[in-house]
Amino acid sequence: MSATVSHWLDKLQESLQQTNCHLQGRPCSRQRGFERTQQLLEKQQQQSGQIWWIGNGGSNALCSHLSQDMINKLALRSHTFSDASLLTCMANDNGYAAVFLEPLKKLARPGDLLIAISSSGNSENILCCGQWALDNGLDLITLSAFAPDNALWQLPAQVAFHLPCTLYGHAEVGHEALLHGIIETLWLNQHRQPTPQP
């Protein structure tokens, strides 16, 4: 049987509906995970903190897109590591495992928020940043997919989402859908016009 786009979309919807969530390593509902993520974003708004995004390949592209949305819609101080000169310098001097860790150590401060995205959940350069964030007073949100025993999903992040799927397209579009939903509903609620009183 040949693959069809309709079946692909059905599997994406199925994965999104089955998204798993942990709060500091403990299972919770998707809705509770969404709410806690929005609380962490509001915390950064209130304290004028900074948000840092890390991901490889397609996940790095998601980081750039969604960081821009946070700046534009939520007025957050949001940053990605996507400058070619910086990344090649860090990788050349420190190895690819530290490509995000070295600039993060120099720029991030306790109380900031790190958002780490990895489809496999096993990318060394993402995992070391997640552990560093937990060890140095940053809040951590992770998004992973594929195997449920992946290392990123096992970190006791403030919020962790796991998308049960086997295709990169489902993982990347699914992660983007989850984050768009979190960002856009927070924006809608913050800009909701009060209902006129009779």
Automatic annotation (TrEMBL):
Residues 41-194 form the SIS domain. Pfam families: SIS_2. Gene3D superfamilies: Glucose-6-phosphate isomerase like protein, domain 1. GO terms for biological process: carbohydrate derivative metabolic process. One of its GO terms (molecular function) is isomerase activity. SUPFAM superfamilies: SIS domain. CDD domains: SIS_GmhA. Coiled coil: none annotated. The keyword Isomerase applies. InterPro entries: GmhA/DiaA (IPR035461), SIS_dom (IPR001347), SIS_dom_sf (IPR046348), SIS_GmhA/DiaA_subfam (IPR050099). Keywords: Isomerase. The keyword Aminoacyl-tRNA synthetase does not apply. This is Putative phosphoheptose isomerase.
